[in-house]
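Service request form, structural biology core

Requester: graduate student, group of Dr. S.
Request type: structure prediction, single chain
Budget code: on file
Notes: please return the result as structure tokens.

Sequence provided:
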Amino acid sequence: PTAAPVCAGRVRIEEGASLRIDLLRAEDQGWYECRVLFLDRHSTDADFQNGTWIHLTVNAPPTFLETPPAFVEVREQDTLSLTCTAVGNPQPVVIWKRSDLAVQSGDTVQVRNGTLSIAVVERSSAGTYTCHASSKEGTITHTTRVLVQGPPIIVVPPQNITVNISQDAFLACQAEAYPGNLTYTWFQGSSNVFHLSHLQARVRVLVDGSLFLQQTTPDDAGKYTCIPSNGLWKPPSASAFVTVLYPAQVTTMLPETHLPKGMQGVIRCPTRANPPLLSVSWTRDGHPLELEKLPGWSMRPDGSIIVATGNDDALGVLATALHPVPPQPSPTLCVAVFQDPPAFTVRPKEEYFQEVGRELVIPCTAHGDPPPTVTWLKVGSAGTSGAQVDGNSSLVFRPLVKEQHGLWECTATNQVASVSTATSVHVLGTSPHAVTNVSVLPLLLAANISWEPGFDGGYFQRFSVWYTPLVKHLPRAHHDWVSLSVPVGAQHLLVENLQPDMSYQFSVLAQNKLGSGPFSQIVTSVPRGFPVTTVPPEPPAMTMRVFLSPPQALTANETVRGVLLQWEPPAQLSVALSGYGLELRQDKGGWEVLDRSIPSTKTQVLVPGLIKDAFYEFRLVAFAGSYISDPSNTVNVSTAGMEVYPSRTQLPELLPQPVLAGVIGGICFLSVAVIFSTMAACIMNRRRAARMQKRR
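Core staff response, request fulfilled:
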């Protein structure tokens, strides 16, 4: 017989022509041919075609070709893949089981071709997984234990506990984790218990993580937090409160209480108790203190005594705090000492007026026993807003700036009392301050806006009311607001022709000859519509839609007098143009209205008064009645290396009519006087010439 190499030594012919294969293997499966050849004659092709084919099928039990390790460690939130492949005849079926239940494919778990995949490993993914390879020839299994590494989980958190003083306290804290190298850290409040001097000698952390606190004191009460950690990610925490019950005690009471002579004072009795304090009794020189016999004396709920007017009656007082159970007082001696409260020797004036940029010194001195400390503070703001205090306790503004305008308070303080005095600083030569207390009264299709003016900066100020509807559209810049001028001297304005039941925003702007102040706070209001029983007037049959495009081709050119801005009128407008408004922004700050009264016939304007080494941006808007266009293109101007032009804040202000009439009258009188003087000189010269001629 002729056999493949894999069959060598295991194949032989027996009982005539039978083929015997010993120790059958799975690879012996296949087709076998039985062919008869005659040895006494020459073989022909036909002899090789008379064979018979037989297929041998070898049944084999399942055998694993690939299995995962017996133990697999994986971190929480990682991925996991377990592969198990087996062979046999017939081909075995491979499934995965956990706790004797087949693992089914789901959102995060997939089982395919003997491979178990977990997309996101969780703590619950830990456990024992078994691979089963089964066929009719038998079943084999392989087990893998999955260990999930992650931070601890607290299984026994601490519980709130209440103990009496000097008793021991126990707070449990147990956690589970893999790896299990747990360390427990305990905190009282935000401090480690071993870092607190009053705790470190009396506290222990047990092996299971619990906290043992010996002989508790009142200072031990509070919040305790247990934090177990195994070094993986952020550890968990659990907290509980320890309450310590103790009788009433007088704590750190000063041996001397300083009271101001002739002023109200307080003799404090600092106590603590748990349960809370019920009563406090006072004695004087060993005898109960009878407050009803001391006019102006009273006791606060916390046990402190209020002395209406300090005098010698308050000397020699002893404080005692009592607790209901057990009534064990803890007396503390307290001596009342009367001293002179601070008194001002030099007070600041009620008001100071000074130009911006100049120096201003405001005196304030005081005396007392002990000598007081004098401090300054700007009311409504923190600190001194850039001002300084010299050695004489005077407030020094060097230089005075706009932000330092307002109410300043000088305070003198010593051990017994504190007294204050205030003064108002008015900074002149600035733009106006913002108006305050803006209120809007909604009316029928209108709103009445009122306000309180801010400081005018030392110049006459005028106001304008700005408003805009709140509609659902893309955010727009502030130029979409409509402004209305306020009559001179008025502090309110009626805004009419508003849409009913639509929200409007209102703001007030103050201006003087030096420029615009900040906008006031924005107030939102909804005008009232027509009553339900009233029929509103019918709208016109056709409403004209207003088209107003922005000014075009804005350019800026340097001249000897300033920056010359030129532009072209709007390309589209359906109503008559009423003028232009110029806006300015310096060094990427907020946009300011520089001039909004440019005539509609102009296409250029000169801007003087720019500051050297600054960066400016200009843009232009067009007005048509109460309508305002979008802004034009923005032009940039840098004054680096440019000459300083006459400031626009120094331009002459329009004079009042009486003064202007007087100036014009004076000029006219001077002109007439010059003319008459000239004519008189001419006549005299002619007469002199005639006399000379006659003499000759």
